[in-house]
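Example 3.2
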Amino acid sequence: MQRNPLTSYIIKLSMFSIAICFIGFISLLFLKNYISLNLPYYILLFYLCTGLSFIFTYLSLKKKKMRFENVFMITKFGKLFIYIIVFLIIVFLKKENLIPFTITYLSLYVLYLIFDTITLKNFSQKIK
């Protein structure tokens, strides 16, 4: 029995986020000065943005309104814009502990970007 791609993606994203949580909390024990204590909130932000962008991509392709490449670029740009705005707001509001915040935020950005790119590449190969 084949699963709905949307359900499959949300399960993969949830498992990936849980793994990141465990790795992050273990890292907090050893690298407390280099990881932000707000890690769970940042993981939630990346989880929601990644999930919502895939839902948007999936629904747009189902309605056949745009080509995959267009939807892919729109969602990537939208997520990048949201991440930059959140990053700048936190940098301007939070003057202390900027090094741990920056390390945590950029690490999560890279990890979720890799996950999103790999899963969307696999998804695009399935729909062709």
